[in-house]
């Protein structure tokens, strides 16, 4: 941990590079980091509140806030997995903690997540969704979400080096998990006898404490908060352990 | 003679190659359940011990696959040996090897920053050294272009400029001086010499007799992961080339014999 702190300038640099690289040589440049999620969310909002006219507008807010977290989670986990191979040349050249690359992938995801909250708030204002002081809880929810995701990313990154099929397997699992997570549907729609499956899904509690303050306008209960924190810390512990056990072997297999 | 900078004691590196070349988790799980995996062990280094002092430049020679790059990676602390102990006193520069991996999408400047930040330099230190680095690499016009537009030699120059910018205590060169043009090679030699005078230790692996003789007093000869000889550069080169000559001599009586294992069918 203390050694990672020494690399804070590197993290800042890598994240900034990731954000700008995607839109380099485009006319609007960095503006895209805001426009992209805004356009994406705008479409979802129109589809869910207008075209489908399923429920009220707040259903669109439910879907949007859920997707925001989900996109962060999958994007970070996926790029973490490929981050070691992508930086192979550096890993065989400079002695650095190998956690740097998956962590910086998650930090870039985090930056995108935080940036996309701006457009989300804009949509809340435009649609007249009630906004309360519960929004002040979001930073805590985001930190917990980041710790959880970083744990998963750290655990999977070395495995993806040792076994070539891990990336594909995880992609399939993430797909499955997406449907097992109440993002597009409310958990109340799930028949009683199946809800335990949804409740076993570790992503649920972490998502809940982020979506609750936006969609319901409520600060999460102590139980939900504890559940999310527990899941996040377990993921982090697993990630750190996998890394400690296998970190030295990465250079042999990359 | 300066203090000991690099000290290896009984260092061995084992690459474990599974006989079925397992790539996938699925296959691995299946073969674990099916009663154990079979491995073929490849010892890239066997029980290597050596010390190198400050101000010394050590050449490393030996045939392809002898373990030279592996030795340099162990000294560069990017590969932790399977057994044995490695002690390095001081800062190690990034290992310079051919195709010295820069990210192709990023510009030269960005690559300089990432490499230097990984080395533990601060932003302000890099800010004040960047001009000198670009200048030494001779890339002033190209430094804002993506690295994939650079030639092999340009990459090598930039890599060398970064690695030597902050007078490292240990500099590791894996066959890099062979791609620069004559002008650059001469500048590198001059810089290595001044680093050496300032007390840096240099480790260079090379197949070029000329490069070894021009830079090193001492040289080790590796073969199949073991140190065959460790002595003055000229004598080691002499002995190494003598064995190459006798090998060729031994081959000569049967020049038309097909090499074992190579069969053409169909
Ligand atoms: N990642 C790896 N996995 C398995 N075996 C490896 C790996 N890297 C190197 N080896 C093996 O280790 C041995 C030593 O390799 P090394 O690259 O150190 O040789 P070298 O002396 O640098 O050769 P060259 O002169 O061609 O550069 C070789 O037999 C090689 O096949
Ligand atoms: Mg080599």
Strand order of the largest sheet of chain B: 5-6-7-3-8-9
Total number of β-strand segments of chain B? Answer: 9
Describe the global form of chain A: globular
Q: Summarize the main sheet of chain B.
A: 6 strands, mixed
Query: Number of DSSP helices of chain A?
Result: 12
Largest protein interface?
A-B, 28 and 35 residues
Taken in chain order, the helices and strands of chain A follow as: HHHHHHHHHHHH
How many angstroms does the end-to-end distance of chain B come to? 63 Å
Shape of chain B: globular
Count, helices of chain B: 8
What multimeric state do the chains show?
A: heterodimer
Explained architecture:
The complex is a heterodimer of chains A (254) and B (266). Chain A has 254 residues and is mainly α. Helix content of chain A is 74%, strand content 0%. Chain A has helices spanning 2-6, 8-21, 32-51, 57-86, 88-91, 100-127, 138-162, 166-180, 195-200, 203-215, 222-246, 250-253. The longest helix of chain A is centred in the N-terminal third of the chain and has 30 residues, at 57-86. The mean pLDDT of chain A is 87. Chain B is 37% helix and 25% strand. In chain B, the strands form two sheets. Chain B has a six-stranded mixed beta sheet, sandwiched between helices. A three-stranded antiparallel beta sheet of chain B has the order 2-1-4. The chains are: A mainly alpha (254), B alpha/beta (266). The structure holds adenosine-5'-triphosphate (ATP) and magnesium ion. Magnesium ion binds at residues 68-69, 174 of chain B.
């Amino acid at each position: 941990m203390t050694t990672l702190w020494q690399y804070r300038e590197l993290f800042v640099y890598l994240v900034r590079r990731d954000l700008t690289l995607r839109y380099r040589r485009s006319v609007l440049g960095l503006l895209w980091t805001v426009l992209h999620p805004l356009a994406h969310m705008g479409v979802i909002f129109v589809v869910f509140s207008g075209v489908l006219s399923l429920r009220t507008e707040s259903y669109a807010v439910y879907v949007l806030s859920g997707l925001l977290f989900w996109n962060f989670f999958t994007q970070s986990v996926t790029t973490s997995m490929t981050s070691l191979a992508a930086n192979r040349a550096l890993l065989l050249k400079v002695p650095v903690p190998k956690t740097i690359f998956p962590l910086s992938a998650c930090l870039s995801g985090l930056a995108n997540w935080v940036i996309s909250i701006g457009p989300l708030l804009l949509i809340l204002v435009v649609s007249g969704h009630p906004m309360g002081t519960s929004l002040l809880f979001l930073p805590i929810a985001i930190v917990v979400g980041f710790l959880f995701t970083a744990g998963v990313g750290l655990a999977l990154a070395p495995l993806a080096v040792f076994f070539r099929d891990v990336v594909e397997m995880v992609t399939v699992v993430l797909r499955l998990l997406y449907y097992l997570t109440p993002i597009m549907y409310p958990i109340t729609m799930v028949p009683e006898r199946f809800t335990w499956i949804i409740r076993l899904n570790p992503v649920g509690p972490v998502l809940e404490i982020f979506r609750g303050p936006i969609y319901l306008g409520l600060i999460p209960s102590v139980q939900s908060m504890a559940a999310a924190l527990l899941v996040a810390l377990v993921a982090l512990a697993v990630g750190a352990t996998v890394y400690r056990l296998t970190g030295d072997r990465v250079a042999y297999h990359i | 003679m300066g203090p000991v900078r690099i000290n290896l004691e009984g260092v061995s590196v084992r690459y474990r190659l599974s006989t079925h070349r397992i790539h996938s988790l699925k296959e691995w799980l299946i073969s674990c359940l099916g009663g154990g995996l079979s491995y073929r062990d490849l010892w890239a280094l066997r029980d290597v011990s050596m010390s190198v002092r400050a101000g010394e430049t050590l050449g490393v020679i030996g045939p392809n696959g002898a373990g030279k790059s592996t030795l340099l990676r162990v000294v560069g602390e990017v590969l932790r040996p399977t057994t044995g102990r490695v002690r390095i006193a001081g800062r190690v520069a990034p290992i310079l090897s051919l195709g010295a991996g820069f990210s192709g999408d990023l510009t030269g400047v960005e690559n300089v920053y990432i490499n230097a930040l990984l080395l533990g330099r601060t932003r302000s230190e890099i800010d004040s050294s960047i001009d000198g680095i670009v200048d030494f690499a001779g890339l002033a016009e190209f430094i804002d272009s993506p690295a994939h537009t650079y030639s092999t030699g340009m990459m090598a120059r930039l890599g060398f400029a970064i690695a030597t910018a902050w007078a490292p205590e240990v500099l590791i060169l894996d066959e890099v001086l062979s791609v620069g043009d004559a002008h650059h090679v001469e500048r590198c030699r001059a810089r290595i010499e001044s680093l050496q005078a300032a007390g840096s230790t240099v480790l260079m692996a090379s197949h070029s007799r000329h490069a070894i003789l021009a830079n090193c007093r001492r040289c080790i000869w590796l073969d199949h992961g073991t140190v065959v000889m460790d002595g003055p550069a000229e004598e080691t080169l002499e002995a190494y080339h003598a064995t190459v000559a006798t090998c060729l001599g031994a081959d000569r009586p049967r020049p038309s014999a097909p090499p074992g294992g190579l069969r053409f069918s169909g």
